[in-house]
Amino acid sequence: MISNLNLTHKPVLIKSIMRLLDDTWKIEDWSEKVVVDATFGAGGYSNAFIGRGAKVFAFDQDKSIQKFVQDTRKIVSDRKSVDKFEFICDNFVNIDKYKQIENVDLVIFDLGMSSMQLDSEDRGFSFRFDDSPLDMDMSDSKLDDKSAEYILNNYTKKQLADAFFNYGGEKASYKIADSIIESRPLTTVADLKTAVQVVSKHPKSITRIFQAIRIEVNDEINNLWIALNNSVKILGKNGIVLVVDFHSVEDKYVKFFFKNNKELKPLFKKIMVPDDEEIRHNPRARSAKLRGAIMVNK
Q1: DSSP character for 114?
Q2: Which of 13, 53, 106, 170 has minimal Cβ neighbours within 10 Å of its Cβ?
Q3: What pTM value is reported for the model?
Q4: What integer best gives the mean pLDDT of the chain?
């Protein structure tokens, strides 16, 4: 059983996650459970946990998701359980900075891009919209020095190439960096696509470059590493950390974290992935991997 709520946003691997937690906790009523949803997004995970009675603290730095926050507040209000949900508009690196969050039973991270970010024509996350500005700031802060445009027009060739190779696995990183520098100034998604296609017309090159720039803009790998370590600080006895990731760059760090943190032990032997039915209904889930661990030394 997931919940009796109508989840308009079906989060990735939610059925597997709920089964896993049921098997681990072995209780139907989660009213005594405290959950931190570190990546609220459209609220799918939070709503599922609230539907089972859990208290949820939800984090998201993206100011554009307030509609979904209000949707969840309406859900808890209708259920006369407003105390079951608290939203915190902050980067998940600060997950351990709030005094009310302690002895947590579950911290969950969904590291995927949200549909609303990818479908937004004015934030530059997707290469589908040629006229989009080169932004890619997940916090939607509108700061000039925290945008893809700033990075593309100001980084040195080595800085660009390192980002493309380390965060995108792009083998033609130096050639693409050269092309970008020669194409300056770049202001739109179309400008970036053109600069990349001068070197490589392979669709995966565009995907890799967009991924690398987004990671660089948001300092995603460094923030993920800090957040994972901080999540352990707020866990209670037998607390669980779950991470859903979507590409090899972040998965490498998640795997290393779980393998080397001596306070945690693996919750299951093999990584969990979506089944064919889930992928059919949500093609963006196809690359998802679920890793998890449970606190043993507290």
Answers
A1: P
A2: 53
A3: 0.93
A4: 93
